[in-house]
Design brief:
This protein is an alpha+beta fold. It has helices at about 5-20, 30-40, 65-70, 80-95, 110-120, 135-140, 145-170, 175-190, 250-270, 275-290, 315-320, and strands spanning about 25-30, 45-50, 55-60, 75-80, 100-105, 125-130, 195, 200, 225-230, 230, 235, 240-245, 300-305, 335, 340-345, 350, 355, 360-365. The strands form five sheets. A six-stranded mixed β-sheet has the order 4-3-2-1-5-6, sandwiched between helices.
């Protein structure tokens, strides 16, 4: 199927979900969701999807030609500012004759001020009640189509190239920021059109959950934690490696070997029908049995797709993100394993890889070597 056919099919599936939920229209502003249903997602824009499958877009007037070339829609309008955006939303409600019922909004994406704008009396008819539609798009995006898997594989290859460049830049005297720059430069040259925030931390800073790069200079004996997330064709990858500047101590090597064993044992359990809780408990259990139960922070697993962190999420993490508890993993969901590290106090270690859930086992997409001392 062509991309346009995929988009039309997705809108049809979305309409069936809307019917099940009793929603008359969706008003989406999250770029990832707009991209999934229309083929284009950007900030300062919106998509309106009616229950009978009509798609209307509102974008800055400067962007109309660009969006017209990239997206699938039935109607498009441009606006000059926020007031114009509000009036264009009101126009579409009138055009589609929606004066009462319910409109689905992405509660977990909207700030309070954005919510106020989308529900402003000059935008939304008084008889239309807002309701959360976060879970509809999350459920739809969980199972990847063949074309999506192809883009995820391409993103993983770019992630491997970025990691190779980052690890090559790890040497005493280099800064965390320079390591991140090496990764990002390589990812752009390998085909990434963008990337999510890069995390590079070193020495004692590897003991924090997600260390943003600083100008700290690497020192001999430091562990360096590198976590990068390229975007290729609108789809992401997630890879993390920990390497040492020089020779690690016996304690550092032992902790790294333990973490890698826990991560790989968890990945080995990935298959259609397995639960996120079982995977999470596998990883935490191995670390806990080795006496590190108090040295783990956060969920070790999350979904990957258009965003580098999306559904499915473990139940506790899902609640925090406003998502529903995930079902047993379906085939062709994509998950990352290794999102949380082993934080000992003086330093931490982490290894993370992106995987496709297969019917009988995993396909690990990110393949850069997992070695504390790079070859």
């Amino acid at each position: 199927m062509t991309d346009t056919t995929y988009l039309k099919k997705r809108v049809g599936q979305c309409c069936r979900h809307m019917d099940d939920e009793g929603l008359d229209v969706l008003l989406l502003t999250k770029p990832a969701n707009m991209f999934y249903l229309t083929g284009d997602g950007r900030l300062c824009a919106y998509a309106m999807i009616t229950r009978d499958g009509k798609v209307a877009l509102g974008v800055p007037s400067t962007d109309v030609a660009d969006v017209t070339a990239a997206a699938r829609f039935d109607h498009i309008t441009g606006f000059e500012d926020e007031v114009g955006m509000i009036h264009s939303i009101a126009h579409y409600f009138s055009h589609f004759a929606i004066a009462e019922g319910s409109v689905g909004l992405e509660y977990t994406f909207l700030t309070q001020s954005m919510m106020g704008m989308l529900t402003h009396p000059h935008a939304k008819p008084e008889g239309v009640a807002p309701r959360d539609c976060t879970h509809i798009l999350s459920a739809m995006r969980m199972v990847k189509e063949p074309a999506e898997l192809g883009r995820l594989r391409a993103a993983a290859a770019v992630a491997d190239a970025g990691m190779a460049a980052a690890v090559s830049a790890v040497k005493a005297g280099a800064t965390e920021s320079q390591v991140a720059a090496a990764a990002e430069y390589a990812m752009r040259h390998a085909g990434a059109e963008d990337f999510w925030r890069s995390y590079v931390s070193s020495g004692p800073r590897t003991n924090i959950a997600h260390g943003l790069p600083t100008n700290r200079e690497l020192e001999a004996g430091d562990l360096v934690m590198i976590d990068i997330h390229p975007i290729v064709g609108g789809y992401s990858s997630d890879i993390c490696r920990t390497v040492c500047v020089g020779a690690p101590t016996a304690e550092q090597q032992a902790a790294y070997d333990l973490y890698l064993r826990a991560q790989q044992a968890t990945i080995a359990k990935i298959r259609a029908g397995v639960g996120m809780v079982e995977l999470e408990q596998t990883m935490h259990g191995i670390l806990g049995d080795a006496g590190h139960g108090d040295h783990v922070f956060g969920p070790p697993i999350h979904g990957v797709g258009i965003e580098f962190e999306e559904a499915p999420l473990p139940p506790g993490h899902a609640f925090f993100h406003g998502e529903k508890e995930p079902p047993p993993l379906p085939a062709n969901a994509v998950i990352s394993v290794g999102n949380c590290g082993l934080y000992t106090g003086p330093w931490g270690v982490r290894v993370e890889d992106t995987n496709i859930v297969g019917q009988d086992g995993p396909e690990t997409l990110t393949r850069y070597p997992r070695e504390l001392v790079p070859a």
